[in-house]
Amino acid sequence: MILLSKAYGGYAAGTIAQFSTEREASLIAQGFGVTSAGPVTPGAVTTTEVVGRLGIAAAGSSVVLTNPKITVESRFIAYLSNSGADATATSITRITPAAGSVTFTLNAASTGVVAIDWMLLMVSGELQPN
Does 73 share its domain with 12? Predict the structure, then answer.
């Protein structure tokens, strides 16, 4: 994970985000941020990335990811990456894509910050490169 000191890919400066190891190393080398132990900053995210991690704050049960590549026909892989840390919110029950955004909904309100790893697989029948 990386604590961004400058805005990048739609993520605001001051946000803790997670990218591929290679991308994070490149961003750190370019002065965009520093390594962070996390957790990911909870709340809605706007990005142009096709893979990432977002967080749901304590007492939350859903989060919105905004991305211009997303359509109502988009397909995702998503899972809770720290579900063992929350005994209440244990699964994603709904992934609802719309034009320009997707909402990830949990089975219950979380008792702490819950992280969701996600990947945009398909847009309008086209597989997305990683």
Answer: no
**b/e sequence 29-55, b meaning 16+ C-beta within 10 Å:** eeebbeebebbbbbeebebebbbbbbb
- Cα dihedral sign for 17, 23, 28, 30? negative
Q: Which residues pair with 114 in a beta bridge?
A: 56
Number of independent structural domains in the chain: 2
Containing structural domain, residue 14: 1-38
Instruction: Judge if 33 and 57 occupy the same domain.
Output: no
* Residue 109: half-sphere exposure toward Cβ, Cα within 13 Å: 4
Give tens-digit pLDDT for 28-76: 999 999 999 877 888 888 988 898 888 998 899 999 999 999 999 999 9
Residues 19-28 have pLDDT tens digits of 888 999 999 9
